[in-house]
């Protein structure tokens, strides 16, 4: 049995960052940038009005209330550039400023003195005007050549909106890791609505892991179940590898019982068992191996929370490495109450991060920490990690707190 830190180093050493591929921007949501992006234009691309009103030339001077102007023209959003002249132009929000004009007066701050065919021809100011007001300057948001996104950044909707605005139609992203999920056990029933016979349980680990892998940035190319049979296991493993899986995650059959066949089956295929059993709870029997073709194999225990811990703290760090993401940042928050833990084991507890009436954050470890319990997973919004030393973490101790997934920040809830 090895420490978590040693196991993590083995995982990272076995993981090689994936190459880049180019995608249309509209297909790149949630993907990881493979290279920096510099803007090829200024944003805004031209000086434009921030208000509906009248554009005029201040040239650094202020104007008093009562100052009158002749209206020389009209400029709407989408109109080409125009020569501003000495008077004022009626202008719409977002419209390009006529050349030479540098200030906008909101329409509610002018009095229409004369009009023709429904268009104002002469106005007077109702209030003083400062030079340069209500104008969005070219490049005020983004300058031409500015780096706007860095390699390793995930393309969320905000990033994609900016790229669209500066005219980027295609991006280089890191290829998605291809994953497979294998649930083992003759007791498993795959259909949720199917009635159970004596001794059967529903296969909830497989859909959980498929969802978690997808949320973490992987493409699940194969999934299935297999009974406690080495030949059948090898057959589904062959299917998963034929589908292109670079990373395989199984649940069950990794402990020390009569039907825990996965370690021997992997050795029989020529796999290198990197480690088997880690000083953690839940999930101690976890196995990691490298298959002859270089694919990475994670053998997670069958209890649902043990499988969830294996996914979150073993599989997801590897996914971050494959996706060229920086090491995950974590919170340090105080415990609300004393927490008992197994001595000598790194403990991963389902918890709630809560905010009190003064805006202070703290972590509450939930009751029902046994590895078979699903309700506490539903109630949790975070993981609390207690290091291996000792058997008690006192209230007020600052502990490591991580979101339910590496892409998912903690969703705060009010303290009960």
Derived structural class: alpha/beta
Count of domain modules? 4
What share of residues are in beta strands?
25-35%
What's the total count of β strands? 29
Through-space gap between termini: 39 Å
Family: Belongs to the MoeA family.
Protein name: Molybdopterin molybdenumtransferase
Organism: Stenotrophomonas maltophilia (Pseudomonas maltophilia)
EC number: 2.10.1.1
Describe the structure.
- The structure is a single chain.
- This protein is α/β, with parallel strands linked by helices and 416 residues long.
- Helix content is 18%, strand content 31%.
- The protein has helices at 4-13, 157-165, 205-215, 230-242, 262-268, 304-322, 375-379, and strands at 20-24, 37-38, 48-49, 53-56, 68-75, 88-91, 103-106, 110-116, 119-125, 135-136, 147-149, 170-174, 178-184, 188-189, 201-202, 219-226, 247-251, 272-276, 280-281, 287-290, 296-300, 331-334, 339-340, 346-355, 361-365, 382-386, 392-393, 398-402, 413-414.
- The strands form eight sheets. Strands 19, 22, 24, 25, 26, 28 and 29 form a seven-stranded mixed sheet that branches. Strands 7-4-6-5-9-8 form a six-stranded mixed sheet, with no helix packed on it.
- Strand 24 and strand 25 (361-365) form a beta hairpin.
């Amino acid at each position: 049995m090895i420490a978590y830190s040693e196991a993590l180093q083995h995982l990272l050493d076995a993981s090689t960052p994936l190459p880049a591929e180019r995608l249309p921007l509209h297909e790149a949501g949630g993907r990881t940038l493979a290279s920096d992006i510099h803007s090829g234009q200024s944003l805004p691309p031209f000086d434009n009005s921030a208000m509906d009103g009248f554009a005029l030339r201040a040239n650094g001077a202020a104007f008093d209330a009562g100052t009158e102007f002749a209206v020389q023209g009209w400029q709407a959003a989408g109109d080409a550039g125009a020569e501003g002249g000495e008077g004022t132009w009626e202008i719409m929000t977002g419209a390009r400023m006529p050349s030479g004009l540098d200030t906008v007066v909101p329409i509610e701050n002018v009095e229409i003195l004369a009009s023709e065919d429904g268009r104002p021809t002469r106005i007077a100011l109702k209030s003083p005007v400062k030079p340069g007001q209500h104008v969005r300057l070219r490049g005020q948001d983004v300058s031409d050549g500015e780096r706007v996104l860095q390699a390793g950044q995930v393309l969320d909707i905000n990033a994609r909106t900016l790229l669209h605005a500066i005219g980027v139609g295609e991006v280089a992203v890191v290829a998605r890791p291809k994953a497979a999920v294998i649930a083992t056990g003759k007791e498993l029933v795959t259909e949720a609505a199917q009635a159970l016979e004596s001794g059967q349980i529903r296969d909830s680990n497989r859909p959980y892991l498929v969802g978690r892998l997808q949320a973490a940035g992987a493409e699940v190319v194969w999934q299935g179940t297999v009974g406690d049979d080495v030949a059948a296991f090898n057959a589904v493993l062959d299917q998963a590898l034929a589908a292109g899986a670079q990373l395989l995650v199984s649940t069950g059959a990794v402990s020390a019982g009569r039907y825990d066949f996965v370690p021997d089956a992997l050795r029989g295929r020529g796999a290198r068992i990197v480690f088997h059993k880690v000083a953690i709870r839940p999930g101690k029997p976890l196995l990691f191996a490298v298959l002859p073709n270089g694919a990475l194999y994670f053998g997670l225990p069958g209890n649902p929370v043990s499988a969830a811990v294996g996914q979150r703290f073993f599989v997801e760090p590897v996914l971050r490495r494959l996706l060229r993401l920086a090491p995950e940042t974590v919170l340090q928050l105080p415990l609300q109450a004393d927490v008992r833990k197994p001595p000598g084991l790194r403990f991963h507890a389902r918890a709630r991060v809560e905010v009190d009436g003064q805006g202070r954050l703290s972590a509450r470890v939930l009751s029902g920490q046994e590895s078979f319990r699903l309700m506490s997973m539903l109630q949790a919004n975070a993981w609390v990690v207690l290091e291996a030393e000792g058997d008690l973490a006192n209230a007020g101790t600052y502990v490591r707190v991580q979101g339910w997934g590496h892409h998912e920040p903690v969703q705060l809830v009010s303290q009960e």
